[in-house]
Design brief:
This protein is α/β, with parallel strands linked by helices. It has one domain: Rossmann fold. It is built from five helices and seven strands; from the N terminus they run E-E-H-E-E-H-E-H-E-H-E-H. The chain has a seven-stranded mixed beta sheet, sandwiched between helices. Helix 4 links the parallel strand 6 and strand 7. The longest helix has 17 residues. The radius of gyration is 16 Å and the shape is globular. The two termini are about 15 Å apart. The relative contact order is 0.18. The structure holds guanosine-5'-diphosphate. The site of guanosine-5'-diphosphate has 19 residues, from helix 1. The site of guanosine-5'-diphosphate (GDP) has 19 residues, from helix 1.
Length: about 200
């Protein structure tokens, strides 16, 4: 897809009603600091469309980017800030659950996991939620450039085992520095636009 325009069209907070879109949606989820903003910027060829390195305590929102009036990229709030209160965590969970449960146009969920680390309990919970809601998540293993080549396969195995990934799940190693993986993600989004 040639990106002609990208527009942050809707920002939803905890109490917002989610938009009833007619265009297809693809959502991106992951723990805070996993590299989600960097990935969105890399996908869009923009330097600072999505915020990078959001600070703990910042408002957690669901952001809808309209791409070419063809598809929405939905940026889900990052999870896993240690300093966030239980009440905030609960709100976050409810917001994500509401989105996964009610969005009629959601076609694909990309779950980002840092390739260097064993998935956290929150990562596993997020994966299970996505599957429970009937989606087949695509796993994006971020920060690939931070590993030596020789470590990649071992880390992918740790990731697969930690999430207990279903056989056949697509896993895309990605780096926002080298842009490796960008084309694979776009191919999945293109297919959604074309169907
Ligand atoms: P977010 O909280 O998930 O949106 O994560 P950010 O995109 O803000 O990234 C968190 C930190 O990781 C920032 O310092 C980024 O520069 C860095 N980062 C993100 N992606 C990559 C990557 O692919 N490679 C490297 N080396 N650093 C990355």
């Amino acid at each position: 897809m040639v990106i002609k325009n990208v527009n942050l069209e809707t920002v939803c907070g905890y109490t917002s009603t989610l938009p009833d879109n007619t265009l297809p949606e693809v959502a991106f989820a992951g723990k805070s600091n996993v590299g989600k903003s960097s990935l969105i910027n890399a996908l869009m060829n923009r330097k600072a469309l999505a915020r990078t390195s959001a600070q703990p305590g910042k408002t957690q929102t669901i952001n809808y980017y309209n791409i070419n009036e063809e598809i929405y990229l939905v940026d889900l709030p990052g999870y896993g800030f240690a300093k966030v209160s239980e009440a905030e965590k609960k709100k976050w969970g409810e917001m994500i659950e509401k989105y996964l449960h009610t969005s009629k146009q959601l076609k694909k969920v990309f779950l980002l996991i840092d390739i260097r680390h064993k998935p956290s309990a929150n990562d596993k919970m997020m994966y299970d939620w996505i599957v429970y809601q009937g989606f087949e998540p695509v796993i994006v293993a971020t920060k690939l450039d931070k590993l030596k080549r020789s470590q990649v396969q071992k880390q992918i195995k740790i990731l697969k085992e930690g999430l207990e990934l279903k056989k056949g799940t697509t896993l895309i190693p990605f780096s926002s520095i080298s842009k490796q993986g960008r084309e694979e993600i776009w191919a999945i989004m293109d297919e959604i636009v074309d169907t």
